[in-house]
Design goal:
Elements (H helix, E strand, L loop, with lengths): L1 E13 L8 H13 L11 E2 L10 E13 L3 E6 L5 H8 L7 E6 L3 E4 L12 H11 L4 H15 L14 H14 L4 E5 L7 H17 L3 E5 L3 H7 L2 E6 L2 E7 H12 L5 E3 L13 E9 L14 E9 L7 E8 L4 E6 L12 E9 L7 E11 L2 E14 L30
Parallel strand pairs: 2-3, 4-8, 4-9, 6-7, 7-8
Antiparallel strand pairs: 1-3, 1-5, 9-10, 11-12, 12-13, 13-16, 14-15, 14-17, 17-18
């Protein structure tokens, strides 16, 4: 049974203005769209919602021609860059705003947690807001009272239940808001990134509750998050939005790979100068280039079970002694797999000022075919000199690692480290 259907949904905004700009135009728009049920007479072609570049039109499409269905009991992750249209999509479903074109069909009550404090009256206490939210969802007082203890216990806010919500921290507000949304028996639960505000313990509880709601109770969940681990663990299906349009719709792991591939460059050579750095660095060493090479220093595509040389070029600003360089490899979901540190087989590493290079040789690359994240680390006697945290990608082609004429199961691609081994079966 279909729980949610988006049919040709688009949402357009006019930058800088709330209305059309004149009273007569506003009245005409109201008459045409609300009374005569016609298209907006001031609807212009507009541009895609590319937030990074200045456009030529005042009209932008936050969403454009969105079509998909969600079956009852499905848990769907909505992922994409900031400004891709994820929150707008959920606001349309929650009827916070109306679509410019198209129709949204939803079966059952919808509980939404779109941002911190959504649906809360700051002057009312936590208890009063629980009853108000339940009433908005169509529940009577006895139904809400029956669920009250469960909601309060899950939120962990019992001590502040009779305190005005305006005095809650953002984390407490999210805790109470999620507890209300998840426990008041909605047929559709909509959650937008707000779990990032909560602490690790609450995020774990919230993910577990959403799994119970979907699997045990057969309810539908739409989940927006930039935490790919949470999306992977919770969802079976992923929808990737890019500039207001559906870029991918399918298996959640394929969706995450599509999203992360689009956001990161991958090739046999990469300039590192413009990449973001993580944490506080002394910049006594600055990585500038990374290359993937064969034994003859020719550029190659990394292959499972084959030789790989990773060459790093970097700039040293002042004389350095007893320093270290390291390369870390992770899955696209952030799971650490391998770490190669230069000081494990070099007793003392020193550099004079200027440009230098170093390479790490891997005789038999132990990674299955897929896409991986690479992180680079440099340190001197004072600590971190440069740190590029997993924003470089490396494509690994599949090959016969064990020399048996076949590779590992495709379900393991991009996730594991291979190792030589032998079996004896009696």
């Amino acid at each position: 049974m279909t729980a949610i259907e988006f049919e040709n949904i688009s949402k357009q905004y006019r930058l800088g203005l709330v209305s059309t700009g004149t009273l007569s135009h506003d009245l005409n728009r109201f008459w045409q769209t609300k009374v005569l049920r016609r298209d907006d007479p001031y609807l212009k072609v507009g541009e895609t919602n590319d937030r990074a570049h200045k456009g030529n039109s005042d009209y932008v499409w936050a969403l454009k021609d969105i079509n998909f269905k969600v079956e009852q009991g499905d848990v769907v992750g909505i992922i994409g860059r900031n400004g891709a249209g994820k929150s707008t999509l959920l606001k349309l479903l929650s009827r916070v705003t109306a679509p410019t074109t198209g129709i949204i069909r939803a079966r059952g009550r919808i509980a939404s947690l779109l941002e911190v404090g959504t649906g809360f009256h700051p002057e009312m206490t936590g208890r009063e807001n629980i009853y108000m939210n339940g009433a908005i969802m169509g529940m009577n007082r006895s139904e809400i009272t029956r669920k009250l203890d469960e909601i309060v216990d899950f939120s962990g806010c019992e001590r502040y239940l009779d305190t005005p919500v305006k005095r809650y921290s953002s984390g407490m507000t999210v805790r109470l808001g999620f507890a209300i949304a998840a426990h008041l028996e909605p047929e559709i639960l909509v959650v937008d990134e707000v779990l990032a505000v909560g602490d690790a313990e609450f995020q774990k509880k919230a993910i577990g509750k959403m799994q119970d709601v979907s699997r045990g109770e057969g309810r539908t969940v739409l989940f927006v998050s930039h935490n790919m681990g949470a999306v992977k663990n919770l969802c079976k299906r992923g929808i990737v939005l890019d500039q207001g349009q559906v870029a991918f719709d399918g298996d959640v792991e394929d969706a995450i790979c599509h999203y992360q591939d689009a956001g990161m460059s991958s090739s046999t050579y990469k300039n590192l100068s413009s990449l973001p750095r993580s944490g506080k660095t002394s910049q006594s060493i600055t990585f500038s280039e990374i290359e993937f090479l064969d034994k003859k220093n020719n550029p190659i595509q990394p292959r499972c079970g084959q030789f790989l040389r990773i060459k790093l070029t970097f700039k040293v600003s002042s004389p350095i002694t007893n320093c270290n360089l390291a390369i870390g490899m992770r899955t696209l979901f952030g799971t650490p797999l391998l770490n190669f540190a230069a000081n494990t087989n070099k007793k003392s590493i020193s550099f004079s000022p200027g440009f230098h290079s170093a390479h790490c040789d891997i005789e038999k690359l132990p990674l299955t075919g897929g896409v991986y994240k690479l992180g680079l680390w440099a340190e001197d006697l004072n600590g971190c000199a440069d740190f590029i945290d997993n924003v470089i990608t490396m494509d690994v082609d599949d090959d016969d690692f064990f020399g048996h004429g076949k590779g590992p199961s495709k379900s393991l691609y991009g996730k594991i480290v291979l190792c030589e081994n032998s079996w004896e079966i009696q």
